[in-house]
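Narrative summary of target 7.
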Amino acid sequence: MKGSTVISVHRDGETVIHTGLLQIRSLRLNGSFLEPVIKDGTLKVKTTRGSAIEIEFQCASDKDGPCVINERGMFLTNTWYPSPEGLFTHRLSALVPKDFTALSEAETIVVDERAEGKLFSFFFPHPVNGVNFIAGRYAVRTDIHNGIELYAYFFPEDIGLADTYIEYTKKYLSLYEGMIGKFPFKRFSVVENFLQTGYSMPTYTLLGQDVVRLPFIVKTSLGHEILHQWFGNLVYIDYEKGNWAEGLTTYLSDHLYEEQEGRGWQYRKQIMTDYDSYVSPEEEITLRDFRTRTDFASRAVGYGKGAMVFHMLRGLVGEDLFYRSLRELVETKQFQEASWGDIETAFEKIAGMELGWFFKQWVDGKGSPLFEVMDTTRGPKGLHSLVSFDIIQKGQKYSLDVPVSVKAERGETGQILKVRDTRQSFEISVDGNPERLAIDENYDLFRSLSKDETPPVIAKILSEQEGLLALPVEGKDDLYRGAVEFFKGRGYAAKRLKEIKDEDIKTASVVVLDHENPLLKRLFGKTDAPSNGLSITVRKNPLNTSKVIAIVDTDSRDEVEASLGKITHFGKYSLLLFREGRNSEKKIAESDRGWSIPLKENVTGFQVATALTLNDIIEKVSGKRIVYVGEEHDRYEDHMAELELIRGLFKKNPRIAIGMEMFQRPFQKALDDYIEGSIEEPEFLKSSEYFKRWGFDYNHYKNILRFARDEKIPVIALNIRQEIVSKVSRSGIDSLTEDEKKELPDAMDMTDEAYRERLRAIFERHEGAESKNFDNFYQSQVIWDEIMSQSIDDYLKKNPDRQIVVIAGGGHLAFGSGIPRRTFRRNGLDYALTLNDTSGEPGIADFVLFPKSLDIVHAPKLMALLKEEDTRVKITAFPEKSVSEKAGLRSGDTILSLDGKKITSVDDIQIFLFYKKTGETIKVKVLRRRFIFGEQEREFDVTL
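Modeled conformation, tokenized:
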């Protein structure tokens, strides 16, 4: 491409001309040749008013440069000609081959047929800040609308789309003329481009061929580009002071179309989801610093946050003043560059209010507000109810108008709360019983979403700065080779399962390759096998809900190559399925609408007339493969009720087993030997380390175990070694040795949020909770539950003809969260859940027993504090009124025997005392160290 330009100068001084990559063939000033001195793509010429600069230039075709010229067409943009700095008026003439049609910014186009080609002359009477040129072998359709000449320039193979584009163009012109004012130009064209573009220039929009063929473009992007005729092409953007136009056009096009369909709140929520997903603290910029979209993060700021600023501005001044202010901007700044400051001036003039604080906060500030709602209470106020709560801003303090509504039995009460301080208290009076407090459920305020509002989406894995890639099991590497390359290219660190620590999962979003990857069992228990093709499923990271876990699964290496790269266009979805390179399914995971806080306290009642006897309950649960019975460990009546239930079930089906939380898996042989009768109870208690590992008075459980021994009912040790749970609770899973990790359950589901919150409430009641780690505590509880679930499942798989009664603490069973649903996940077997003497909350259990209180006869105690060292037990102290101290024993004595029975451990003492009664006298032989004469054996009579 060769050309020449004449620049007429209308002021004294230096004229700056941008030449970019152009080759300057000659330069003349007022007819005199000059040697062009170009630095960094800029030519500077000293001129006076009335000077004429003449430049001859050429531009080589380059797909990445300003001049793209090939057999399909021509696309010249940016510095394809010597461009003077600032606004200018222009005329353009271009000679192109005869079979080409050309377009540029113009209200009048004249075509002169010549032997060497067609000469197009373009006339545009207004100042511009740039000129573009497009040419191709077009078929053309024309129409007219309200005096505006309409054109559609399409390639012959796509000319069938032209009429549709013209009809939609008419609708958009009518829409925006009603909002903003008369269309600024005499003509408007929709032009198809052989390059994949989406541009709007004065008098035309340029859309790529693949884009115009998409059926939804006429309903979305076309309107966006037409709106740019006002904002961007009539009122120019002062880029040095921030690009405001993309936010405004997004708000009045893409957002408006969704709002007209009743989906405005979803669109606004998606804006905030994208912002939270893509914009890391390192990538946050102010709207005044936004120039153009360069990546997902900059789009989320300039387009998304920008749109929300105009939405909040509309809410602040009202709809009528909002559109009047925009018309003021158009009238006063047409064919001039405008900034955020000009928008502020227009709105202040029309709305009659000072808005500097608003623009400083939202345009000059980074990030988004983060606040919490705390101390929510409800109470009576005459015949009404009063809902009280605090809103606490975290981080930067904003001036916020927060929409709040209280849902009540008799309707809804809404208010806009003026939040101005770091912490503010509010009260809302409502008619009737309040049920729910909803904060900004229509997403009228730009803010950080709460965790329950935020769906897990693909955007999270696309924006992850230091993601973790969990490689598939060996043998599937070739299948996922393309996926490994894709995610490594996005900065993901690839690791095998044995290299992945819990801390890695907590600190990053994780992409897991293959649905059979063992890491998924460690987090979710199990995942279902997807259908054929390529699937991407995104779930919340159970170890850090601000991150996500993405599961990529495929049955074809070719499918990975054909489809995976396309996920960048589907960032807002939680599930994607591809078949043969085409998207066949997409979904967004469910999440809360607005910040929702329940207020209604449901009072549960029972119909006493339908109360069941224990025999009734036994009858109802007898057909279940698993019967769970929850207890309070120190309530004797709970254990007696358990025994009666076991007796009743045994009568109906002798093929039962008993699973007990109280015993740990490594000691199963001790249980088996005792039930078979090969060892007696004292040896069983010692071999199972009952007193050391459980500690509750064995009198609570002896009747159940003796009944099992008498009837030869198998008893299953369900629990994991106490040392494992304690270590995880203190220091997390990563602290375990490799051998200890082998004892962990084969699968762990960390995703039950309701269970997590119930455990959190328990954790926070523990003394010293503030110095401990809740995540470690939660993991230890899940390990505890999962290993008991696995123990149940292992037994039933080996014994498919058995029914099992599971005895465990009520906390492991309530609502099914701890053990029951985990076991159901493993085997799908039907179960019944019975708890003892608990609240009647809906869903807490199938049956609740209310046994009468019973007194237990506890085993007597020596009333001495004991310390075990090697094979010796030493007395370290005594409680008040100790029977041992009264009998003459002293701190420092080593107990050698009780009634002649040798003592080598604390367990020996507890087992011995278990078979004694209060009031009995026993002989205690001790070894006492004397100051001068050494150790001496002594014997004392202790009355228990």
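The chain has six domains: 1-64+80-85, 236-362, 370-439, 458-587, 608-844, 865-943.
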